[in-house]
Amino acid sequence: MSGILTQADIHWTELESVDSTNTWLLQAYSQRPLPGVQAVLARVQTGGRGRAGRSWLAQPDSALLLSLGFPVHTAQPMPHWPVCAGVGVAQALASVGITAQLKWPNDVLLLGGKLAGLLCETVSTVHGMQVIVGLGLNLTAAPAALPGGAWMPVALKSAWPADKAVPSARQLAERVVPAILSAIDAASSPAGWATLRALFRERDALLGQPLLVQDGGCTLLTGLGMGLADDGAYLLDTDAGLKSVVVGDLSIRRAA
């Protein structure tokens, strides 16, 4: 990705209701060329998607429901995208006085609960490859906990000063979108990626924690969280040595 994109006009689309902002943008890219950076906001999502086919639920006007799309101009591996997006979201929150943590690969945590989830996808079109970064972030209310969820949902309002209004979805999006773009742009160079890894490490909720890796309810690995690998995968120190966990349908959970 070129730094020029971070300075380009961001093309905003605001939808009253949609099944999923990621799905909407995927379909839009498949139908026509879209210029520059696309930012799609929705007031209501009826079928929001999370990683591994999970749903993202939110009451109307209670969450930032955003998808950000842009062309790929780099050979970065897919594990880079959610790391960059997570760091960007955390930095945007820090700019309004909120300290968040990151749970690899795609969650933003606040006060020990899940504030936001990220879903990164790519779509190949006749105009080239596009990356779509989807974000669902609880603003004023947190949805009910999902069965088997390891992290209780939490809303930004929980950590917001009581005498101030919580930012609107558009207000927060105008901070989040440039921050994500800047993080992705920085990671396009080796030195920049090293900086992004260091920023992730400062916020890594799993670092040094006893963890287990599950897939379909089966435990595949246990060990201590050791942070990000060079390629964006997550490292575990196991009885069999250092193991790398890649993005997929795997889940990292705190060991009981």
TrEMBL record:
Swiss-Prot/TrEMBL keywords: Ligase
Source organism superkingdom: Bacteria
Pfam families reported in the protein's UniProt record: BPL_LplA_LipB (PF03099)
EC number: 6.3.4.15
Domain BPL/LPL catalytic: start-end pairs: 1-188
A single MF term (Gene Ontology): biotin--[biotin carboxyl-carrier protein] ligase activity
InterPro entries: aa-tRNA-synth_II/BPL/LPL (IPR045864), Biotin_CoA_COase_ligase (IPR004408), BPL_LPL_catalytic (IPR004143)
Protein name as it appears in the record: Biotin--[acetyl-CoA-carboxylase] ligase
Taxonomic lineage from the root: Bacteria, Pseudomonadati, Pseudomonadota, Betaproteobacteria, Burkholderiales
